[in-house]
Amino acid sequence: MAVPTPVPASAPRTGMVVLALLLVYVVWGSTYLGIRLALEGGALPLTTVSGARFIVAGSLMYAVLRWRGMAAPTGRQWRNLVFMGLTMLVLGNGMVVLAERTVSSGLAATAVASVPLWMALFGAIRGEHATKGEWLGIAIGFLGVVWLNAGSSLTASPQGLILLLIAPIGWAFGSVSARRLDLPAPFMTAAGQMICGGVMLVALGLATGERPTSWPSMNGLLAVAYLCMFGSIVAFTAYVWLLHNVRPALAGSYAYVNPVIAVLLGAWIGHERFGAHDLLAMGVILAGVVVLTLARTRAK
């Protein structure tokens, strides 16, 4: 979710930084397996795994923020939040959930790791000139994306491949566009974005024929609850705190840590298996993101 990235005003405590990073690394990395478990437990992809959990999480955050006296978004800000919900949650998260019906959680996480590469490309198109190091990172990362899509187990699922191409593009486009939008305070932006995106996801699910015929299993309900509470509230709160207290490069390091966590958890708990081609392509994508991040840090 896109939020401003202010410069830290003072040095935070090391313990708090480590805790926040662990939450973002582990929890966000585990959400891909959580999505898979929710789907296997009978939860509907758009109306429940994505839509309902965002509505619940966003509404809880919104209620707490208003209770604490934070101003509600203006009419113009709500329109911008609808745009962000569409690009980042419907096209971003929603497509990942649909893809995980046929694609492993580890591969889904690795495909989403290309978000910084797309963000850099969209930024360059908008006139934010990239350095040679940044272009090198973009080139390496996209080589890995092409490699992953061309010969891995993704080719067995053409629909999953397309969805995992749409998801990072939608998230990145919304993130880059948000920099120029009139938005409320960061936490209110997150809450409003989840509410708007959640409503659209539920509407899309119903429009495409999703109808609950029975309750999900207990494991499915617990997975959705985990995604709602920890993935959408706890980890994102930690992420926003990091953006306000550490350098953006460190806060954004989740982009190349989450796939590693997702792959490890997928293999350990979900018994997912990856071939040498998959693992090598994952490594190339992550190398591209690391080169891009380091180049941006040096440029700044």
Q: Strand share of the residues?
A: under 5%
Number of strands: 0
Shape: globular
User: What string gives the helices and strands in order?
Assistant: HHHHHHHHHHHH
Structural class: mainly alpha
Spans of at least 5 consecutive residues whose pLDDT stays below 50 are 4-9
Straight-line N-to-C gap:
23 Å
Give the rounded overall mean pLDDT.
83
How does the major sheet shape up? none
Task: Report the helical percentage.
Answer: over 70%
Taking Cα atoms only, what radius of gyration do you get, to the nearest Å?
18 Å
Q: Would you write up a description of this structure?
A:
Helix 1 packs across helix 11, helix 2 runs antiparallel to helix 3 and helix 2 packs across helix 9. The chain has twelve helices and no strands. It is globular, with a radius of gyration of 18 Å. The chain has 300 residues and is an all-alpha fold. The chain is 76% helix and 0% strand.
